[in-house]
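Input sequence (134 aa), recorded before submission:
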Amino acid sequence: MLKSRIALNEDYKLRRRLSSKMTEEKVKHILTDKRLSAIKAMLEKDHAIDCILLLHLEKGRWKNAKGFMREHDLTLSDGTFRARMMEIEDLGLAKSVPIDPLKKYYVITEFGERVAKLLLEFFDKAEAHIKKAA
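Predicted structure, token format:
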């Protein structure tokens, strides 16, 4: 019986090491892959997630985004909105549509929609864990 317990313990340790190694490889890939690290860097910036979610709500025009943010007592400057939208577009999460020579609005791409849904799912799960912990 002691031998079987030792064998089970060793098997468990091996699985944990393999899992840890796979996790380390995933993290290394996210940090070093050109496209993934660019998305990570963009998501770290102020209001990046706000802007992706605004695109998901079809609020890719500054006037509509500003109205939505004000309606909910949130702030977002036009400069930040435009900078984030250009970065989001560069990553393929949105595309710009010209209104006139000086103005444009942004629409979410299929890839951007998938990212927005993943963010919504993440926040749903985070909220569930917060409620469970309380």
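Checked by second reader. Residues 1-32 form one domain.
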